[in-house]
Amino acid sequence: MNLAGKRALVTGASRGIGAGIAKALAAEGADVAITYEKSADSAAKIVDVIKAGGRKAVAIQADSADVAAVQASVAKTVAALGGLDILVNNAGILRLGGLNDISLEDIDALLDVNVRSPMIASKAALPHLGKGGRIITIGSYFADRVPSPALGVYAASKSALAAFTKALARELGPRDVTVNLVQPGSIDTDMNPASGPTAETLKQFMALGRYGATDDIANAVAFLASAKAKYITGSTLTVDGGANA
Ligand code: NDP
């Protein structure tokens, strides 16, 4: 196993891509803390799956829009697992609307959850990450190509993560901590179901012609978290079935 002895925190991991990442890191030997906002039952099930595989796991309720809750989630992870080696900033929300239509509340929510939260969690994690530490953030392929005006603020929130990733890679390089961004394409989750008119439109952009699965992103994250990726930092890995090809 590639991650034996490592301690990981995955934000927003009660469902979808985050749940897949948490299970993949545990399958590689890591102990894992997860955060969630509302889905306590789903989070408990992910914890049970990980524990059944022989790893430590803990679920922490923490709204990513709440700075104190995000900071506390890092402290609770360290207390529960005995340290922190891998932070995965996955929690994110989608709110649609062109600039004329989108509300100020939705703009604030997108920036708070998708942009500020990864910064706050990373800042809180800094004192704990030793040599070989990892910060991996989940962006979006819509950071590179924006096929609808309704995606503007969401796409901007995800674009911000690329610059943040590069700067933090430079800041933490001297400590041998790597920082990378994974940009999923359309992955079948509650946020972006693989059926319906929107899905059929999005599939037309994809070289592979189909939605991805949460495993497709989780495998990329598990690789970046491993020692095999020790010379990769400040990078963006787009996993989108060729949608931006
Ligand atoms: P889902 O909506 O399916 O799941 C979101 C997860 O994040 C849930 O565990 C949810 O917790 C948690 N979450 C949402 N808001 C908050 C919050 N305020 N505080 C804490 N946790 C929160 O999303 P996906 O799995 O599809 O997306 C995961 C990430 O991948 C996001 O960053 C998203 O932007 C990105 N992404 C997804 C794509 C896709 O096609 N699915 C494409 C590109 C990027 P709870 O269950 O408690 O609500």
Automatic annotation (TrEMBL):
PANTHER family: OXIDOREDUCTASE, SHORT-CHAIN DEHYDROGENASE/REDUCTASE FAMILY (AFU_ORTHOLOGUE AFUA_5G02870) (PTHR43639), SHORT-CHAIN DEHYDROGENASE_REDUCTASE FAMILY PROTEIN (PTHR43639:SF1). The keyword Oxidoreductase applies. The keyword Thylakoid does not apply. One of its GO terms (molecular function) is 3-oxoacyl-[acyl-carrier-protein] reductase (NADPH) activity. Its EC number is 1.1.1.100. Keywords: Oxidoreductase. Belongs to the short-chain dehydrogenases/reductases (SDR) family. InterPro entries: NAD(P)-bd_dom_sf, SDR_fam. This is 3-oxoacyl-[acyl-carrier protein] reductase. It comes from the Bacteria.
